Amino acid sequence: MELRNAKGQTLQEFLADYDENRYRRPSNTVDMVLMTVHEGQLKLLLIRRKDHPFIGQWALPGGFINFDEDMETAVQRELEEETSIHENTYFHQLYTFGNADRDPRTRIITTVYLSMTPETNIRKTFANDDAADAAWFTIRKCVQEQNDRERVSVLTLQYLDTHMEYCITDTVKNNYIETRSQLMEESTTELASDHVKAVNMAMDQVMNRAASTGILFNLLEEEFTLREVQNVYEAIIAKKTDTGNFRRDIKRMLKETGTYKNVKGKKVKLYRFDPMYRYLEENL
Amino acid sequence: MELRNAKGQTLQEFLADYDENRYRRPSNTVDMVLMTVHEGQLKLLLIRRKDHPFIGQWALPGGFINFDEDMETAVQRELEEETSIHENTYFHQLYTFGNADRDPRTRIITTVYLSMTPETNIRKTFANDDAADAAWFTIRKCVQEQNDRERVSVLTLQYLDTHMEYCITDTVKNNYIETRSQLMEESTTELASDHVKAVNMAMDQVMNRAASTGILFNLLEEEFTLREVQNVYEAIIAKKTDTGNFRRDIKRMLKETGTYKNVKGKKVKLYRFDPMYRYLEENL
DNA sequence: CTAATAGTGTCTGTTAGACACTATCTA
DNA sequence: TAGATAGTGTCTAACAGACACTATTAG
User: Fold this and answer.
1) Peptide bond before residue A275 is cis, with ω within 30 degrees of 0
2) Nearest nucleotide from residue B270 CA, by C1' atom
């Protein structure tokens, strides 16, 4: 490899000459939208900020990416550090937020990951400790009103007396959809920085994919009953659904384990997710 | 706002004390997968690198994000600078690639945007200049073989004598899909860095969304005939499709303009995209 | 004339929504 | 007994794929 550039440099010479400090650079973080289901309700992990900026406000867990660390490694590290989650927790990249003024410290570009885990995988408790610096908020997004060109939804986050409610408006523009969010007056506090954007995006994605992909099985253990699947599904879409139709349709992504479980004395069939089915559609 | 942190600092004091240089930071870029349709073929803009690293290789257009510039502003600037595209060109965020070793200069995290424009909006020509530093490559992704747990596709990029062919394998793992790509021997060169990952992801997304969302109308002008839509659609999915069914289905997202256009002496109806229809499903 | 393209109509099997129904356990 | 929860069966309207068909222009 003796290729030379316009200055006559080899790659080695070029790299020796390269100065990353010529321009001021942003900092990079990863944040996580971590969900689980507890007592039939969809939960989101939030951290109370103990330092500036946004001190005292609730925020998504996350942190800086180490200089020589892959982004996925950073996510895994943060999941373990901040939330005491076992390894092998599912996550995928959601979106990167990088507005120049989104953090007062310096320019911070954050890549948000969407992560899900079954309740049984969580070591951090659901204890109702009001002084806690981390809490599982109940999260729900309900469509309030909808017409041809606008959809109004309400995004609710609640933990003990802490209550945040956002009004989300999706408006059809010429060839894209504009999403605005506004904190409602009933709220006792608000999410730090632009984190509501990430939370809203995550909710949309999970709600949209719950029926057509296998994403919701990341909230369940390896083996489960159909009723358990339906409960998780209904927690996500915040609606009741027809049992007969749901069972008929969901079975296409499952296979029977051949084993049974006792639920209130009744012998109930256990299933397992079969990722062979429909895997192509998951390629979104 | 007189909140103080554990050190007793106000926000102002904290910010004055904050040192972004305490840790070494990555650099951040935006790259673009810019597509158009020309003579019934899907095209991708690639830039030939004139400097290290990856000198002489073809790469996605892009560049560093200025410190105080929003990411979308950077994309718009790059679209205009590098490709002479008019403003108002459609784009959306595709994915952020940030592996620690993806660039030999320093740690570079890049956010890739997927952009599309009708041919008529392009000032940079399709001239067959072999010495050009930018070229519109014909791009095609064809599924070669597919079974329950694996799908093998071939991604082809071609411009004059330059020919790149990748074999893409999607394998079903426990609860996700692993994608690997491998350059095939017939290729005369290869894409710089990890750009093939972005290109492949963009192709998957466009192919998947072509039928169910309005994304392909970004490749067409304001008004178009049904045949033109079908041609663009077939260029994307690299397959012929049933005319009757296609027209029946696509009409649901369109409205007639009431005007006509002469095609080979025949009077052909003109349509326009109606974003009111199906806008909720586009929320992916 | 034939070939190609614009555009329409129809048949059929699959799917999704609505809803009625049985069986079993709890209180 | 009533009231949950587990689980099944059926009807219908909407939809997708296959394909036959007409009309017009180019050669």
Assistant:
1) no
2) C6
